[in-house]
Write a structure and sequence with these properties.
7-stranded antiparallel beta sheet, two-stranded antiparallel sheet, elongated, 11 strands, mainly beta
């Protein structure tokens, strides 16, 4: 996915398991290595494979319970995000969570902080888009097939291919 954010904001990626996610992108109005000098907002973007609860409400309640935070009232509504139907959970604390199911994963966008950053938050949310991870092979590419080992590789016409004497591998030069 991609998104736009203000040039004076900070972005970092936290790798490794956080809950059931493999990485989380954190966008913030302040450098998290230093104490914030004023109002602040933080946005966390993560994805969970094979979500069980497509509304996200149970995950947010579990997150709140793990953080030992008081029980907040929750308002849920359907919204459109990245051209997809998403669920927005608004908490009486002012925090907001967006849950966006996409291609077998649940993308979670959590917004924590001051409402004075609504313009910047809206910029990030409206620019959020999924990128294609599929690759289309151009029609004019050639195909090398190795029947002995049972595989094929497509390559540009301009690359010369040389089969080695033992036929266990080929060399593509490009």
């Amino acid at each position: 996915y991609t998104f736009e954010y203000p040039s004076d904001w900070y972005v970092r990626v936290v790798s490794g398991p956080i809950g059931s996610t493999t990485q989380t992108v954190i966008v913030s109005s302040y450098d998290e290595a230093q104490a914030p000098a004023g109002p602040e907002v933080k946005i966390e973007i993560s994805a969970t494979a094979n979500p069980k609860n497509l509304s996200g409400e149970a995950e947010w309640k579990a997150r709140r319970a793990n953080a030992q935070e008081p029980d907040y009232s929750i308002a849920r509504e359907n919204v459109t995000l990245a051209g997809q139907t998403a669920y927005r959970l608004s908490f009486s604390s002012g925090d907001t969570g967006y849950y966006l199911p996409y291609q077998g994963q649940m993308y979670q966008i959590a917004v924590f902080g001051q409402t004075e950053f609504d313009t910047q938050i809206n910029q990030i949310l409206t620019s959020f888009k999924f990128t294609s991870t599929t690759f289309s092979v151009p029609a004019n590419w050639k195909t090398y097939t190795n029947t002995q080992n049972g595989y094929s590789v497509q390559y540009p016409m301009s690359w010369p291919a040389a089969r080695m004497d033992n036929e266990n591998y080929a060399v593509l030069l490009g």
